[in-house]
Write a structure and sequence with these properties.
19% strand; single chain; globular; transferase; VitB12-dep_Met_synth_activ_sf; Met_Synthase/Corrinoid; alpha+beta; methionine synthase activity; 5-methyltetrahydrofolate--homocysteine methyltransferase
């Protein structure tokens, strides 16, 4: 079975990919507050801590490129079935009800497609147990570095490893705004809300290679970790699954091979 590929990044390598807008959002700095003296002081502290992190922190990304096809609302990746959810609430504009499997070539076509899987985490030797402010700043930066490393990994996959966009040349602002071909839906986010999908991804990626452990609910530890899918279709886009009905819950539990009560727990926010 093909193995996942590992990339290790230093803080210096991924720092340019940090989304400082999301960093400010995590600190509730919006509007005028984002221009305040308090915000300036926070950013200065953040940049000083980033410098201190240079030799104390590393990010690791796993990715795997799989032969894939869509089978209804499932994606089959290297023979492993990944059940997905479809939107059920009608759109005001009458648009289609989307599922991520819509962006993978269907099995009926007889032509195989590809999909990428990934997991990224950040390891730090720093700790600030007696300083709540520095501890929170440290954790917020680790979260941003995990996302930044994932952004760097995805660019490598698009341009080199998968190579479907070899001539991609984007300014950093465009890159962070997702103005590239394809999408990278993360587990737990609106397009892929079932956190327990991590168990399936783990079976294909072997997340323990980079020290990620899963709880009984599929949450990842260390906290500064992210996982998901990489899709290349030019028309692929993000969406929110939103509310689902009892019929889809039953169907999804059947496709996952898990009890309905367990799926109700995993999808409580979508019921």
């Amino acid at each position: 079975m093909p193995k996942s590929h590992l990339i290790t990044y230093s803080v210096r390598e991924v720092a340019p990919y940090i989304s400082w807008g999301y960093f400010a959002h995590a600190w509730s700095l919006h509007g005028a507050a984002a221009q305040s003296a308090e915000a300036e002081s926070l950013m200065a502290d953040a940049r000083r801590m980033l410098e201190a992190m240079q030799d104390q922190v590393r990010a690791e990304s796993l990715y795997r490129l799989c032969t894939a096809w869509a089978d209804g609302d499932d994606i089959v990746a290297d023979g492993t079935r990944i059940p997905l959810l479809r939107q059920q609430e009608p759109h005001a504009d009458g648009g289609p009800l989307l599922c991520l499997s819509d962006f993978i070539r269907p099995v009926e076509s007889g032509i195989p497609d590809r999909i990428g899987l990934f997991a990224t985490t950040v390891h730090s030797r720093l700790a600030f147990p007696d300083d709540a402010y520095l501890n929170l700043l440290h954790q917020t930066l680790l979260d941003r570095l995990a996302e930044a490393a994932t952004e760097a990994m995805h660019a490598h996959v698009r341009r080199v490893a998968w190579g479907y966009a070899p001539n991609e040349r984007l300014a950093m602002d465009d890159l962070l705004a997702g103005r590239y071909q394809g999408i990278r839906p993360a587990v737990g986010y609106p397009s892929l809300p079932d956190q327990s999908i991590n168990f399936i991804l783990d079976s294909l990626l072997d997340m323990q290679r980079i020290g990620i452990r899963l709880t009984e609910n599929g949450a990842m530890h260390p906290h500064s970790s992210v996982s998901g899918l990489m899709l290349a279709h030019p028309a692929s886009r993000y969406f929110s699954v939103g509310r689902i009905g009892w019929d889809q819950l039953q169907d999804y539990a059947r496709r996952r091979g898990l009890p309905i009560d367990m799926m109700r727990k995993y999808l409580a926010a979508n019921l």
